[in-house]
Amino acid sequence: MPPDPEAGTVLLVDDAPDNLRVIYTILHENGYTVRVAPDGFAALRSVRRQRPDVILLDALMPGMDGFETCRQLKEDIDTRDIPVIFLTGLNDSESIVHGFQLGGVDYVTKPVLAEELLARVAAHMQTARLLADTRGAIDSTGHAMAAFDEHYAIHWATPQAHRLLQPLMDANDRLPLPLRQWLQSASDRPYALWHDGERLQFSQIEPGLLQIQRHTALPEPEALARALQLTEREAQVLYWVILGKTNREAGEILAISPRTVNKHLEHVFEKLGVETRTAAASKALGALRG
Which stretches are transmembrane (predicted)? Predict the structure, then answer.
């Protein structure tokens, strides 16, 4: 039967032609799109060229074996969340344990039983899709999220967080040094980082979990004050309003009461000839661009 796009894509990695033929046939006949790689090097190239939904990976292969292949997949932020199911010998408990230690999610023993193989692939395919949907849903709220480990390596991220963080990671695939230093300081204030004309604001929701908000490059309060003839405090209040802060949040940042923030905001509205926070932000940015 032809592959069903809804069924998903499996990357099958094995150096034994007989194993490839048997497993390929089982998966293909059940609607999966199957890509084949004969060794670890080819598997890594295939994954980077086109991401599969699930990887079936033979543990013992010449050259780069399945363990090293899995290790490299799990070290790469682009591929670490792809479910890896190891293919092992019937009594190879050592390989099974080692595979789990490297980040494998399951294993299938050889010779392969069709029903077992299909059940395991389907289960992990569904889990991966639910996880992807959840990440997309979080991104749609405007709050990109990323989880990091004790070494500041990202092990989970929504698609938007992944796109924002990828250019910032250091040579060891960890969060950038300034961000690590902020996390180590245990500050309860957000941390701002500028990259490619965007202001990225980081907040630690809980230990090991970051929220990232992206803002287009904004002028500092001094520029707002000069361009719009505002007082220093009015410009500071407007600056944080443009960044989406509530009166209470702006007051905490500026060390003034929400009531005082509101008073300054009323003056800003009057000077700009607007009635809402959104209109004030829009007019301010429009005036500066013009």
Answer: none
Euclidean distance between CA atoms 230 and 208, whole angstroms: 40
Q: Which of 174, 196, 216 is the last residue of a domain?
A: 216
On whether both 194 and 100 belong to a single domain, the answer is: no
Q: In sequence order, which ranges of 59-187 are alpha helices (DSSP H)?
A: 66-75, 93-101, 114-140, 159-165, 177-185
Rg of the chain on CA atoms, in Å: 26
Looking at the structure, do residues 225 and 177 belong to the same domain, yes or no? no
Q: What is the pTM of this model?
A: 0.56
Domain containing 244: what range?
221-289
- Shared-domain flag, residues 105 and 91: yes
Q: How far apart (Å, rounded) are the C-alpha atoms in residues 63 and 130?
A: 34
| Bridge partners for 106 per DSSP | 85
The tens digit of pLDDT for each residue in 165-204 reads 888 888 778 898 888 999 998 887 888 877 765 678 898 8
